[in-house]
Amino acid sequence: MPRIRQADVEEVKARTNIADIVGERVALRSAGVGSLKGLCPFHDEKSPSFHVRPQVGYYHCFGCGESGDVYTFLREMDHVTFTEAVERLAARIGYTLHYEDGGPAPETSGRSRLFAANAAAAEFFRAQLMSPEAEAARRFLGERGFDAGAAAHFAVGYAPKGWDSMLKALSAQGFTREELTTAGLVSTNQRGGVYDRFRGRLVWPIRDVTGQTVGFGARKLYDDDQGPKYLNTPETPIYKKAQVLYGLDLAKRDISRGDPKRVVVVEGYTDVMACHLAGVTTAIATCGTAFGSEHVTVLRRIMGDESASGEVVFTFDGDEAGQKAAIRAFAEDGRFNAQTYVAVAPDGLDPCDLRLQRGDGAVRGLLDHRVPMFEFVIDRRIAGFDLGSVEGRIGALRSAAPIVAAIRDRMVRAGYERVLARKLGMEPRDVHGEVESAARRAGGDRAGGSGDRAGGRGDSPAPRGDGPRPMPGSEPAPATEQPMQRVTLETLPRTTDVALERDALTGVLLYGHRIDPGILARALAIPFRTTALEAVRASVAAAADRTRPGWAMAAIEAVREPYRLLAGQLLARDFPARDDDHAVASVTDICRRLVLRALDQEKTELLGAVQRTSPTSDEGRALRVRLRDIDAERRALIEVD
User: Which of 205, 232, 383, 418 sits most deeply, having the most CB atoms within 10 A of its CB?
Assistant: First the structure.
């Protein structure tokens, strides 16, 4: 298969801002000059340890050790091949790729074909919404307050009644039946026949956080349809309902920019549409499944959920099913750093019906009546007890105490103990005692388990696999050898020499192309005193052209094990400076200090040698000449502005 020319690979990477690609999935914020950080997309954490360096096109997680360039990021996140990653980014920036030996572009396969099939299906459904047959679909939308503009904004479509309308249309575009089956667009009967999965239904495209269509949700329109009211795409290689949130591609920008950052979780596709059209543009919904832990992870990365200032508001119907949904959502509450709330509309209306009956203002006002999730769940727990009797109050206390006990913040817990005492008409000390007992029981249940309910970060997880992911070209250790102990910033000694050498390497990796070549060459020619940092220095010093884009990444990949992870951390860590110009000045000063340190060490050794040498000997005179030269070099370095 023809390979993409290396020059094109480098050019596409140089023209792509890695922060834009990562930022589609992770809320990034400034972490110092030239550095951004957010919650790691490769492991679950509550405090951001994932750093991105747009200037050098590099990311690194200090928690799990994952690192790489923009191609590595796409390959890890989307499970695509290297070629597909390059082609995707080239298409994004409108760059024409060339292939070795003048060969044609290789055929795309796997996940890329599934994305393409879903995109083609979405366009087919959208076009069908304007057909005469789709009158029932248009009427359904109109009766719920959605006009043609709203349908276009959410790319709503219509699946014709025929058994193979979409199958024929996509087959004509070159998609195979195997591809359409894998994409979940067609089904197979017992005799092996293939037919459209969605027929005679209103269709919503379900997109991932980057805006790519991964599946569909479809609502039946006709009485003779014997299928479920809502039918979704089945699980496929690109559609995992536990990880997808409808509307997140439209809501993510406003979520990440909000102050406070707020997410509104509703229950259906039309509810998302209603909220967005009413001005609540951070509304999202699950797709055929309950809100779960993986949804929490996706949202927290978009919110940059490292503080308690954000809000997640769940809207539920007022009926029993809605209350059960609230209880299920509460089970995931502790995974958020943000504050969680519940909003139930008057008369139990969902956002779509609320907008239809009372207007856009009522939908926006729904959020003004939100109540904290803990309080909502407490109220539901005690609602079934007769609070007029002693037995009823005790039963209600025992039912609600575990809810309050699950609150980790002791100040907040104490506040809810008082709230519960007031609701039950009981003494606060009695409520406190039962809550403490519930906490002890919960602690006993967790003994030997996975930790507290909130799933706090705790110790940083080990890198995925048995150690740092090998760079291309590295060979695995023989099975008889013990794995090498990884070296990280945290394992380095805390000395002034280490600090100087560490900062020098970070500075050179980031700003080496702007440092005076003379002083930089002198600094990098000096062996470092710390073994691990010396291994990185040797690789950096060997770099042929530090003005070439990507040189720092190449230098890191050339670092020998077990020091490559450390090299990645050095590139990703914060470099304290006000701006780039001050950073360059600081790195230049560090390079001078390295040279001065080497001169001082040489001077100390020469002074000792002078004591052992005759002052009239040739050797003695040569030593004194060198001492004078060292003093002159030191003065020149010190006097530089």
Answer: 205
Least confident interval from 23-32, 39-48, 441-450: 441-450
Q: What is the model's pLDDT at position 465?
A: 40
* pLDDT tens profile 552-571: 888 888 898 899 889 989 98
Q: Which two tokens stand for residue 472?
A: 């291309």
The closest of 220, 221, 214 to 245, measured between CA atoms, is 214
Evaluate whether 537 touches 521 at the Cβ level (below 8 Å). no
Average pLDDT over residues 490-517: 90
Peptide bond before 234: cis, by omega within 30 degrees of 0?
A: no
pLDDT tens string 383-434: 889 999 999 999 999 999 988 888 877 888 899 999 999 999 999 999 999 9
Q: How far apart are CA 491 and CA 500, in angstroms?
A: 16
What is the phi/psi pair of residue 366, to 5°? -55, -35
User: Do 492 and 454 meet the contact criterion of CB atoms below 8 Å apart?
Assistant: no
| Geometric angle at alpha carbon 206, from 220 and 119, rounded to 5° | 105
Report the distance separating Cα 493 and Cα 497, nearest Å: 9
**Gap between the Cα atoms of 311 and 292, Å rounded:** 17
Dist. CA 400–CA 404, nearest whole Å: 7
Q: Quick check: helix, strand or coil at residue 217?
A: strand
In what order do the strands lie in the sheet containing 339-343? 245-246, 283-286, 262-266, 311-315, 339-343, 371-372
What is the token pair recorded at 377?
């769940």
Whole-angstrom Cα distance, residue 454 to residue 389? Answer: 35
32: region left, alpha or beta (phi > 0 left; psi from -120 to 50 alpha):
left
Rounded CA-CA distance 66/463 in Å is 7
**Looking at the DSSP assignment, which residues form a beta bridge with residue 58?**
53
| Residue range 179-227, pLDDT digits in tens | 999 999 999 988 888 999 999 999 999 999 888 999 999 999 999 999 9
Q: Taking 70 as the threshold, does the pLDDT of residue 455 lie above it?
A: no
Rounded Cα–Cα distance for residues 556 and 508 (Å):
12
* φ, ψ for residue 343, nearest 5 deg: -125, 120
**72-98 core/surface letters (b: 16 or more CB in 10 A; e: else):** bbbbbbbebbebbbbbbbbeeeeeebe
pLDDT band with cut points at 50, 70 and 90 for residue 118: very high
* Cis before 260 (ω within 30): yes
How many CB atoms within 10 Å of residue 369?
12
**Residue 119: how many CB atoms within 10 A of its CB?**
15
